Amino acid sequence: MEKLAIHGGTPVRENKIFYGRQWVDDDDIRAVSDVLSGDYITCGPMVNELEKNLAKLGGAKYCVVVNSGTSALHCAAIAAGLKEGDEIITTPITFAASANCALYVGAKPVFADVNPETYNIDPDSIEKCITDKTRAVVAVDFTGQVVEINRIREICDKHNLIFIEDAAHSIGTKYDGKPVGSLADMTCMSFHPVKTVTGGEGGAILTDDEDLYKKLVLAHTHGITHDENQMEMAPHEGPWCYEQISLGYNYRMTDFQAALLNSQLKKLDSFSKRRKEIVKKYNEAFADMPEIIVQKEIPESDTTRHLYIIRLNLDLLKCTRREFFDSMSAENVQCQVHYVPVYFFPYYKNMGYERGLCPNAEEIYKGIMSIPLYPKMSDEDVDDVIHAVKKIVEWYRK
Ligand SMILES: Cc1ncc(COP(=O)(O)O)c(C=O)c1O
Fold first, then answer.
1. Is 339 near ligand 1, meaning CB less than 6 Å away?
2. Which residue is closest in CA terms to ligand 1's atom 10?
3. Per-residue model confidence as pLDDT tens digits over 321-339
4. pLDDT of residue 240
5. What is the pLDDT of residues 83-106, one digit of tens each?
6. What is the pTM of this model?
7. Cα(231) to centroid of ligand 1, in Å?
8. What is the pLDDT of residues 371-382, one digit of tens each?
9. C-beta 92 within 6 A of ligand 1
10. Of 83, 100, 253, 346, which residue is most buried, by most CB within 10 angstroms?
11. pLDDT surpassing 80 at residue 238
12. Ligand 1 center–CA 91 separation, angstroms
């Protein structure tokens, strides 16, 4: 048996590998630099082009590009008309922003439990959380695998709820052949550097609904319109006139970020293909290891995986998740945990959320960690990660 690096053995690799990272090449850099030496550096032709590209990719009529996935969710909450006294239902196994978007508009996040095998929000649990205050569902395509769209759509239609899909992980994924972007009332994307394509930061909201689109446009630019049909004062005031007609924010994306994203989108298919290859290699490597539980894949979702989660079967191991995680780190494979259930955080605890709310999510959280997954990984990198997992499992096997 190989001695673990954490106990003084030789690490499986010399340099550290991280759980995710961007891939920015010379074409991307040229695209950004062209914009920087041009006339528009914020909100110019590249943003318009990006909105067209994303709408086409997602099969949606409209797209509004913003400066982060968090702003996308905030704008979606505004466009949905959420306000104080309203409730939204979301998952605890997500980044905090999926729930925070309710708080931004004074509404209350309610946490539904997750499916113990896919880790996505469980439609049965959504139904149990519905009250006469529920106005929306924010369903997260966790790791890139689409939620149970048809069931959630049915529930939303039955109870007159707005369906917001948090697709921060799932750009490039298709469900029953339909692209993410065409499945919910509003689809929110993120372009943070660990995501499948990046703009440094960035986000977008896709919708087919013209009314929601108009509200999204206003929300991301101060509630200001240049459309004479929407104005009261103009044109009497003069041709310079624009009017603020609602409360909005400055959530605009710069043109150089949009240029980076337009360039990155050209590589989405190859990024996607490489992510799928790595997922397949991991799945095969862990298939005969009962100590490692992998996320169940549903056939409807042709998934571009953003994260690869291993869940430790702690009954079969003589270590804690923390010991396993630290051992991976000592082998120079830096993992991360996605996610601490949102309501565990002090901010939520102080609002009265208690542990025990979502038993499946809490159980899953105890054993999970994300191992490296990004397109620039070489086959050797992938082999090193598998080697590290196997080495540690062998050491701690009961
Ligand atoms: C599921 C989910 N929702 C929302 C966000 C927020 O996106 P951003 O970091 O672009 O604000 C993230 C990003 O980390 C995320 O993973």
1. no
2. 69
3. 999 999 999 999 999 999 9
4. 78
5. 999 999 999 999 999 999 999 999
6. 0.97
7. 35
8. 999 999 999 999
9. no
10. 253
11. no
12. 13
Q: Is the CB of 101 under 6 A from ligand 1?
A: no
Please answer whether residues 211 and 217 qualify as being in contact, where contact means their C-beta atoms are separated by less than 8 angstroms. Answer: no
Task: Tell me which of 71, 192, 306 to substitute to probe ligand 1's pocket, judged by most ligand atoms within 8 Å of the beta carbon.
Answer: 192
Indicate if ligand 1 lies below 6 Å from the C-beta of 173.
Answer: no
Task: Tell how far the Cα of 37 is from the centroid of ligand 1, in angstroms.
Answer: 30
